[in-house]
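cron nightly-structures :: item 1 of 1
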Amino acid sequence: MVKLWRSLTGPWRGLPSRPRQVVPWAIVVGLLLVFPLVDKALRLQVLNDFTDVLVLVVLALGLNIVVGYAGLLDLGYAAFFAIGAYTTGILTWPAHHLEWNFWVVIWGAVIVAAFMGIVIGTPTLRLRGDYLAIVTLAFGEIVPTTIRNLGGVNLAIGPWQILDNANLTNGVQGLNPVGRPWIGNFEFSFDPTPWYFLILMIAALVIFANVRLQDSRLGRAWMALREDETAADCVGVNPVRTKLLAFALGASFSGFSGAFYAAKLQAIFPELFRFNLSVMILCMVILGGMGNIRGVVIGGLLIQLFDRVILTQTTLLARGVGQALNLAPLATIDLGLWRWFFFGLTIVVIMVIRPEGLFPSRASRRQLHAAEDVEKPASG
């Protein structure tokens, strides 16, 4: 933990320092800061949707540590998102008579999510490949099912009754309302602007942590395990402990997102954390380029742009054409129902045409094309 803390708080190595690197970042930051004003001036009314998109981008950045850096296929990442959200809900739901301060609860959600990452990782990270994927998939199904069945909990040790029909998660009905954040006398309400700046701060923190970890000793250990676990073990990298740190850190970022999402939505239900959410987050990482922070962010934005804008507008266009041509199937079509078909097709095409993703890191591009570069002289 000391080494991890030093890697995050040492000199800002890895951040852009040259003017040509700083200028694009400054432009992006400036645009993000003025975006609420533009949204209000032009009456776009997309600030709330963009805030939700940033929640998923933060999740993708957390999964990028597990999949992109450490090379561990996690198919149940939404479970940690659910753990963070329900930790916040349980500690702030009025029926529990707790109603803790959100700024304390959000760190509690991070700690609980990281702890659960360690719990699931300790017995399973000795597995590799498909076996690890199956276990994480099972964990992703276990958590929502457990949440649904914690509406009435009885716990007794011998003659002592510790819990008597305790309603922890309110079952399938979910927790409503969830506590909102306060700053002095200001309460976060339905105005999307404060929520936008809060998730922007969380995203900046997560990106900073990703950048620092990428070039740290721990980050290099993850990448060594990803390429060749046996060789990494031979040079002194502890595979289980290093993978465990990847799981814990990736889960902690999902705790941030879960706490924010629960407070913003004001109600959480088990159905919000199904397997398809894990698939969507994994698609963001793969599409953008595993291991590349910029690629993951852009990949997440592209998928959400397609899901929230292109599919909606294409549906309206198709319905208009169907009504003009008097074609009943086309006039009533809803392409939103086909989103998972399009996501799957996109991933298949990307894996065939550009397996390293749209914006891969230099290392990923070099490794994936190394075999092709070696074969070209031989074939010539």
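cron nightly-structures :: done
Residues 44-154+163-379 form a domain with the ABC transporter involved in vitamin B12 uptake, BtuC fold (CATH 1.10.3470).
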